[in-house]
TrEMBL record:
UniProt lineage: Eukaryota, Cryptophyceae, Cryptomonadales, Cryptomonadaceae, Cryptomonas
Keyword line: Membrane, Transmembrane, Transmembrane helix, Transport
PROSITE patterns membership: ABC_TM1F (PS50929)
Pfam family, one: ABC_membrane_2
One cellular-component annotation, GO: membrane
Identification of the protein by name: ABC transmembrane type-1 domain-containing protein
């Protein structure tokens, strides 16, 4: 029997790689086109960052699933060609866009057609985020009140920033004109502004952290209850559909609540500052406002193109780090059995193997981040000279004062930060998107299990 095996001389991994490499390359190009389409939607919708993030996460997840499945090779006797990771979860498919089902069908049938993403499909991808984020604020009155407090302090903080912009303008104008009387008057106003501005900034940060903490506590308790109900902890482990549920409850819930709130408040602040400082900048010199729009658009498009692999790599890193940590926990919990049977070499080898896989993926991750940093660092340094390059001729011609130049720098930096959310937060967004995928997959798997087990417990079909 051994002699008759046609692949005896060739390792099964090499045979499978040679067999499915052409199909993998086709799907790789398909997923890249899919991603570019979603990236285009991101650029066109800066004010709707959360929806664009979901589209970017979906397309990178398609790329990551096919790439890592082929790189790690399926075991002999396993299903020869892998499907998307969420294909086994019917509840996930309800939230998936038509393009998701189309990719699965093409993968199964071996057909390869042109794929295009439109806005409606990206919006469907965003529904997973909405499903996880809204229940806390719908069910808890205290959460809505605390959110209102955070929004109020956000508005106050933006108003303080605008006020300091005008104080800074008058301050530098008085200094350049050597107007000592006006200068010391402005110093007194500045001290009074600090008395009001500092408490606003501190309380804004405090209440935002308090809301994130209470949201995490509520969501973690809800997730633990779901994990315990209908023996989900046992069934999910037996089916091996969900890896490392402990990390998803402890780490992914924390990351989701903190980062969701941070991005939402950042987006709100950006919208407020954009309107406030755009009026200031446009009143100073309209061409400067046009220059910042072009510069921010160029930065966003370049960042998305350079860093498009980060979402998939961050998703893979979360999983591999959790696998590595679990292998050490397993060794600790089974210490007596391992010592009795002398299993130290086997356990140590497995722990080191998982560590090597995590480090290998992390090296890819920092390599992509390095390439992205080359652009983003240069992008931030250019901000120091671009406003001056545009308004300096007006100052040299005596048409504006030094304080106006200083104010234009401040307004320019505020607007650029508002329009460059993706540039400045791209690494965080990619890690956040990967966390949403893992947490959403976990919650939907528990919901599906509950839907299956509830009729067995109650004795009647679920409504």
């Amino acid at each position: 029997t051994v002699a008759s095996s046609p692949h005896k001389a060739v390792p099964p991994q090499i045979h499978l790689c040679a067999q499915y490499l052409p199909r993998f390359l086709v799907h790789y190009r398909m997923s890249i086109r899919c991603f570019d389409a979603s990236a285009g939607s991101i650029i066109l919708s800066l004010s709707l960052l959360s929806l664009a993030t979901r589209g970017m996460a979906f397309s990178a997840r398609v790329h990551s699933t096919h790439f890592h499945a082929m790189r790690n090779f399926p075991r002999p006797g396993a299903k020869p060609y892998p499907t998307l990771r969420t294909a086994a979860l019917p509840s996930r498919r309800k939230l998936a866009s038509p393009i998701t089902a189309q990719i699965k069908q093409e993968t199964k049938n071996g057909e390869h057609k042109e794929i295009n993403l439109d806005w409606a499909q990206i919006q469907l991808q965003a529904s997973l985020f909405t499903k996880m984020a809204l229940p806390y604020f719908k069910e808890e009155r205290s959460a809505r009140l605390l959110l209102g407090v955070v929004i109020a302090f956000t508005l106050a903080n933006s108003a303080v920033s605008v006020g300091f912009s005008y104080l800074g303008r008058d301050f530098w104008t008085a200094l350049s004109q050597k107007d000592s009387e006006h200068y010391f008057t402005l110093l007194g106003k500045y001290a009074l502004a600090l008395l009001g501005g500092v408490p606003v900034s501190v309380l804004y940060s405090y209440y935002r952290q308090k809301l994130a903490l209470e949201w995490r506590s509520w969501m973690a308790q809800r997730t633990i209850d779901m994990f315990e109900s209908y023996r989900s902890y046992y069934i999910l482990e037996a089916k091996k559909e969900i890896d490392n549920p402990d990390q998803r409850i402890a780490e992914d819930v924390r990351s989701f609540t903190q980062t969701s709130l941070s991005f939402s408040i950042t987006l709100l602040t950006s919208v407020i500052d954009l309107f406030s400082f755009s009026a200031i900048l446009y009143s100073i010199y309209p061409p400067l406002f046009g220059a910042i729009i072009l510069y921010a658009g160029f930065g966003t498009a370049s960042t998305v193109y350079i860093g498009k692999q980060l979402v998939g790599l961050n998703y893979e890193q979360l999983q591999r780090e959790a696998d590595f940590r679990f292998s050490m926990v397993r060794m600790r919990e089974n210490a007596e059995s391992i010592a009795f049977y002398g299993g130290e070499p086997i356990e140590t080898r497995e722990i080191k193997r998982r560590l090597a896989r995590a480090m290998s993926n992390f090296f890819e991750l920092i390599s992509v981040q390095r390439n992205l940093d080359f652009f983003t660092v240069a992008y931030r340094y250019m901000v120091q000279v671009l406003p001056g390059f545009v308004v300096a001729p007006l100052f040299f011609a005596g048409k504006i004062e030094l304080g106006v130049v200083s104010q234009s720098y401040g307004a320019f930096n505020h607007i650029l930060a508002d329009l460059s959310i993706i540039v400045n937060q791209f690494e965080s967004i990619s890690a956040f998107s990967a966390g949403i995928d893992r947490l959403g997959e976990f919650l939907q798997a528990m919901e599906l299990n509950a839907a299956k087990q509830r009729p067995l417990v109650t004795g009647r079909p679920d409504a």
